[in-house]
Design goal:
Shape: globular
Oligomer: single chain
Distance between the termini: 53 Å
Largest sheet: none
Order of helices and strands: HHHHHHHHHHHH
């Protein structure tokens, strides 16, 4: 007697990939919105206080989730030194980025910050001894040319544009240490230190700069921290359901999101140097990704 075969299950990979792309792009718009709120708040409150709000409320959410879902002892690290240095690098990066937004457009600062993924290629070669080909090094140079176009040295450049460049350099080292800590600790442990160290550090600094915020400002800081947590959650979900190699190029959509908010909300001019420089950064980043 002929046996009937069960119907073949449909291939869900295209659907999962599309969902992963949607979540990735959604996360970039959420994170760009978070940075936009920081720009609004730093106009009236000290930068340290704004960064504290971002870390404090983000940490409350992360700690609640980890306490409910993570394995017991998720705070125990096998390389506490690396975790602390990595967290401090992110604190400094966030502080420099938010400080720069007082003076420069959100879109420009975000574009310069995305030099970090390209710079990691060079640092991986110099620090970790990873193999890097000449074409990848050319991509790093092209990315730096993109940064120069955005900063426009010698052509009426805003000196404050050097602040997000410093943030990008620190962020590149943060990414580098992220590779290293992944060899020793779980994602939950790394997530715990990423947020909690910043919350503690800026809480200690808070009494020296504190200005009484209004209730709307407190609400904006809470929303900012919630957007940070939501943005990272969307990224985690995206990379859990689709390959990282397929999603990485879509992270650059944050430049588009930030530029859109910069023009629509803050009325910043969209200069051709910013568009061209961002294009070079995106092209170099995608090329490095393709050759990795």
């Amino acid at each position: 007697m002929t046996q009937l075969k069960p119907p073949a299950s449909p291939d869900t990979r295209p659907v999962r990939l599309l969902l992963g792309i949607a979540l990735t792009i959604g996360s970039t718009f959420v994170l760009a919105s978070m940075d936009a709120l920081s720009k609004l708040l730093t106009g009236d409150l000290p930068v340290v206080q704004v960064v504290w709000g971002r870390y404090f409320f983000h940490t409350l959410i992360v700690m609640t989730v980890l306490a409910l879902r993570a394995q017991p002892g998720f705070w125990k690290s096998r390389r506490l030194d690396l975790q602390l240095v990595r967290a401090l690098l992110l604190c400094a990066t966030t502080f420099l980025l938010y400080a720069s937004l007082i003076h420069v457009p959100l879109g420009n600062a975000t574009a310069v910050l995305f030099f970090a993924p390209v710079l990691v290629t060079l640092l991986a070669y110099l620090v970790l001894g990873e193999s890097v080909g000449p074409r990848q090094l050319v991509a790093v140079v092209v990315g730096f040319l993109g940064v120069l176009l955005i900063i426009r040295p010698g052509f009426g450049a805003e000196p404050a544009m050097l602040i997000p460049l410093g943030a990008a350099i620190l962020l590149a080292f943060f990414y580098l240490l992220t590779r290293l800590v992944g060899r020793y600790d779980s994602a939950s442990t790394t997530l715990f230190y990423t947020t909690s160290v910043g919350a503690v550090l800026f809480s200690l600094a808070l009494p020296f700069v504190w200005e009484m915020p209004s209730w709307p400002q407190i609400g904006l800081m809470a929303i900012m921290g919630s957007l940070g947590a939501l943005g990272h959650f969307l990224l985690v979900r995206a990379f859990a359901i689709a390959p990282a190699s397929s999603l990485s190029p879509f992270l650059y959509s944050q430049i588009v999101a930030a530029a859109t908010i910069s023009v629509v909300v803050f009325g910043d001019p969209l200069q051709w140097t910013m568009i061209a420089g961002a294009g070079l950064l995106v092209a170099s980043g995608i090329y490095v990704w393709l050759k990795t």
